[in-house]
Amino acid sequence: MTSFSPTARIGFIGLGLMGTPMSRRLLEAGHQLWVWNRNPAKTAPLAEAGAQVATSIAELVKAVDVIMLCVTDTTAVQNLVFGSDGIAAHAQPHQLLIDFSSIAPAATRRMAEQLVEQTGARWLDAPVSGGVVGAETGSLAIMAGGDEAALEQVRPILARLCQRLTRMGPVGSGQATKICNQMIVSCNLMVMAEVLALAKKAGVDATQLPAALKGGFADSIPLQLTGKRMAERDFDEVKWHVKTLLKDMGMAEQLAADVNAETPMTCLGKQLMQNHGDAGFAEQDPATLIKLYE
Questions:
Q1: DSSP sequence for 99-160
Q2: What are phi and psi of 163, to 5 degrees?
């Protein structure tokens, strides 16, 4: 099985905080790129950069070899692939679907099986970690599930988007790995908010805490990025959303139930974060979690 050409025709669906910079990097790498978004206005910057704007999902699928998705949740993926006149209505056996979204592992396995049965097209789940900065700089971590040979076909393409691409197992394994990632990230953010609020009440200059802990065992990328913003009460720019973490923690809860695993820390973190979201912060940046303790 040969790799797709370095200039393979790619279709990208979902031009949000992550999808837009990822698409831009594919253009910069020389790929022929078709884009489609539910809100057509979001396609304008990429059109100016050289992307072809498809007027429908059908037009996009018929034009490309590789179809990439980066959308909000399981329902959105389901609708795009199997909805009326969706991807499955037009996909061909030679095509490969790569889903960068963070969605449920069980649903991923089910949809992948349905897609190959209906069309012969293969499915890779390839959720990403690294945030908007990682998408912009091509330094994402991609955790993939699916056929190893299919993944190797697109490894040169994905190399433009990431610093590390790891196959975690069969279809669905990438999504399960992303859930593990989000459990660590979410619980880390909750503790960071707690610690920074405590430090301030204890008379510590909390704004110095990320720098003071840098390089030690307590250090992390979230501490240096989101923790710094927490301490400085820098909430204006929304780099990611509380509601996204809530969605991922809900999937963690479901996965734990499916495999009979105990996750008490995540359950508590989800409860606290849900309280924060319900207080009007669901659309806000997780840096606002420190408000829980004010």
A1: E-S---HHHHHHHHHHHHHHH--EEEE--EESHHHHHHHT-EEEEEES-HHHHHHHHHHHTT
A2: -95, -15
Dihedral sign, CA of 72, 73, 77, 78? Answer: negative
8 A C-beta contact, residue 107 and residue 254 = no
Nearest Cα residue to 8 out of 36, 22, 29? 29
pLDDT at 270 over 90: yes
Q: Which residue has the tokens 């679907």?
A: 97
Residue 244 CA to its chain's centroid (Å): 9
Q: Structure tokens of 56? A: 């429908």
Q: Are 83 and 77 in contact (CB under 8 A)?
A: no
Per the CB < 8 A criterion, the answer to whether 156 and 66 are in contact is: no
Candidate list 42, 62, 178, 239, residue with the active-site label: 178
C-alpha 4/C-alpha 32 separation (Å) is 12
Please say if the pLDDT value at position 238 is more than 90: no
pLDDT of residue 239: 83
178 counts as catalytic: yes
In 3D, which of 123, 190, 154, 151 has the Cα closest to residue 4?
Answer: 154
Question: Is the predicted pLDDT of residue 5 greater than 80, yes or no?
Answer: no
